[in-house]
Amino acid sequence: MISLTGLRKVYPGRGGQQVVALDGIDLDVPRGGVHGIVGESGAGKSTLIRCLTALEQPTSGTVAIDGVALSGLGERELRRQRRRIGMVFQHVNLLDGRTAAQNVAYPLRVAGASRGERAERVRELLDLVGLAGRGDAYPSQLSGGQKQRVGIARALAAEPAVLLCDEPTSALDSDTTRQILGLIRDVRDRLGLTVLIITHEMGVVREVCDSVTLLDRGRVAQSGSIAEVAGDHGSRLARALVSLPPEPAAAGRVTLEVSFAGEVPTGRVLAAVAAVEDVDVSSGTIETLAGRRVGRLRVVVPSATAADAAARLRAVGVHVEEVA
């Protein structure tokens, strides 16, 4: 559904230097998938969204939605293709002087829908996002979560095939975040949408995404399904998905990080850890991501026996690294 091939975006910089924002991005998101894009500030996430919505033309490479390349389209056809992409913003960007219903109706009015068509579609969408009966409320009368629900309804007004969400929960508390992510997942399931979420919150990826891509200085550093990424034990994404707080070991002792996935029985791992001489488990988590059991433990052992302990643990099929 979403296909990026060799996507490159270069901006002119000072002194004739070039700033490479995107450097050869290849990415495919299948129809009906929820894909997360993560990365630090400056990784290229915002530029990627602007290229996906054709607000920026790539320097080279292609952006295609359902097999239609956006580059080179005429103005009329480009407008039509843009209507297939719904956009949910971090700060919602509702029109304060319009009611919730009027905000949702706005893109329909721009598209030329009749008054009756707009009224029926707005009613359906407000009901879909859980705001039936709140159509007459102004943004100032709505909570942060309710505003984002209006934003989602507005993004769905033109019946898009793709929903782009730019940091959709970063301004919300944890309970409201879970509700909004649940709504995004429900909308995907009910409408068959393809969803792309730009976020810096790994909790969002864990909660709702089927797959994830890590951008680093304009390049794809890692990409895959949640199960694949979580099983790549030493990778940055795996550590972020199944994270533990840093805990320095005392003098004369070494911290080992033990990672494992569904193919290694949890009981076998715990038994192997317990059998290590003079071991302390400093922290750990065992959970299920995308239907796959994954775990990460930090164990502290004497420096003199650390190599032997690591070898014994690896023998049961786990990944072991010494934590600096």
From TrEMBL:
Pfam families reported for this sequence: ABC_tran, NIL
Keywords assigned by UniProt, alphabetized: Amino-acid transport, ATP-binding, Cell membrane, Membrane, Nucleotide-binding, Translocase, Transport
Subunit annotation: Homodimer. Forms a membrane-associated complex with FtsX.
Example GO molecular function: ATP hydrolysis activity
ABC transporter domain ranges (all copies): 2-242
GO-annotated biological processes: amino acid transport
One Gene Ontology term, aspect cellular component: plasma membrane
InterPro entries reported in the protein's UniProt record: AAA+_ATPase, ABC_transporter-like_ATP-bd, ABC_transporter-like_CS, MetN_ABC_transporter-like, NIL_domain, P-loop_NTPase
Keyword Protease set for record: no
UniProt superkingdom: Bacteria
Function: Part of the ABC transporter FtsEX involved in cellular division. Has ATPase activity.
Organism taxonomic ancestry: Bacteria, Bacillati, Actinomycetota, Actinomycetes, Micrococcales
Sequence similarity: Belongs to the ABC transporter superfamily.
SUPFAM superfamilies: P-loop containing nucleoside triphosphate hydrolases (SSF52540)
Protein known as: D-methionine transport system ATP-binding protein
Keyword Cell membrane among record annotations: yes
